[in-house]
Amino acid sequence: MATMADVAREAGVSVATVSRLLNNLGVVSPETAARVYAAIEKLSYEPNLLARNLRKNESRVILILSPNITNPYYAHILSGIGDAAAELGYSALIFNTADDPARVREGLEMLKKHRADGAILMASDMNCAWLLEYADEYPLVQCSEYGPDVDIPHVSIDNYRATRDIMEYLIGLGHRRIAHISSENDYISTSLRLKGYRDALAEHGLTSRDDYIIYASRDYSFKSGKAKARELLAVEPRPTAIFCISDTLALGAITAVKEMGLRVPQDVTVIGFDDVEHTTMFHPYITTVAQPCYEMGKESARLLYALMMQEKQVPRQSILEHRLIVRESTSPPAELE
């Protein structure tokens, strides 16, 4: 049977470091922790975790508050969190909030009951100052969405810059009548993408028309994307391009275009956001912005671990790189061909 000394030798650290990590008696870097847990797994070392957890009043569980676990966008983030948690010796517990603030509070109450040691929130809206009552007592990290004026660490991409990249691409193709399918939600990403859309039009001397901006359901459903695209395509003059703030909305928009007897991209260009797997399941493959969802999940777990270990220098924000991926659903407008 492996001992703590065996684990220390395998990981290349001292016995004191292994003990400190397993008993949360001091700060251990994420890299060192990962080596120690890898050694534990390799050697099948079995510390008396139950007794230790009872003594320390900890659970070794990370709580994940997700608004919709069936959404493919969240699935990759959840995978990243789960893998990073396992590397650090934690389990991940997913709590589906159904995008209901009351359910978010219900989930966070698990921290008070010591059923989790910290939480990652995946859909904080911009009016989430109330979270500070929990963040003052427990480690919290916001992933993807966050409150811009709330001092809780967050992981995201630069949604404004990503939208400007999309708009520069569309305008560069020659599009001047660009519509936007936004959402009824109150997420920072939604706000920044709308701002990026409007700012890009203004910078190029193009009018931001109110009838070219429409709001789909707060959960970016395919059905609402289809319905809102039909409304846009009835506007005169018809937009030559539609920028959707999610790939699911873009899929709905493409379906609407086809059902109205039009073609993508020959008659209407459609562009999405997120790069979920569905974007390349059917033709035309969707031009979109790729978010590093898996890496966002892993980074969120690492930030939370740093907070739980009470490290002194924990970044308040981590902005990861996005990529514009050009596929089949975009082309110059027909009048330029």
TrEMBL record:
Keyword Transcription (UniProt): yes
- Could you tell me one molecular function GO term of this UniProt entry? transcription cis-regulatory region binding
PROSITE patterns assigned:
HTH_CROC1, HTH_LACI_1, HTH_LACI_2
Q: CDD domains, per this entry? A: HTH_LacI (cd01392), PBP1_LacI-like (cd06284)
InterPro entries given in the database record: Cro/C1-type_HTH (IPR001387), HTH_LacI (IPR000843), LacI/GalR-like_sensor (IPR046335), Lambda_DNA-bd_dom_sf (IPR010982), Peripla_BP_I (IPR028082)
State the source organism's domain of life: Bacteria
Keywords from the UniProt entry: DNA-binding, Transcription, Transcription regulation
Q: What range(s) does the HTH cro/C1-type domain occupy? A: 3-50
Alphabetized Pfam families for the sequence: LacI, Peripla_BP_3
Q: Which residues form the HTH lacI-type domain?
A: 2-56
Keyword Transcription assigned to the entry: answer is: yes
Q: Which Gene3D superfamilies match?
A: 3.40.50.2300, lambda repressor-like DNA-binding domains
Q: Could you tell me what this protein is called?
A: Transcriptional regulator, LacI family
**Source organism of this protein record:** Longilinea arvoryzae
Tell me the lineage of the source organism.
Answer: Bacteria, Bacillati, Chloroflexota, Anaerolineae, Anaerolineales
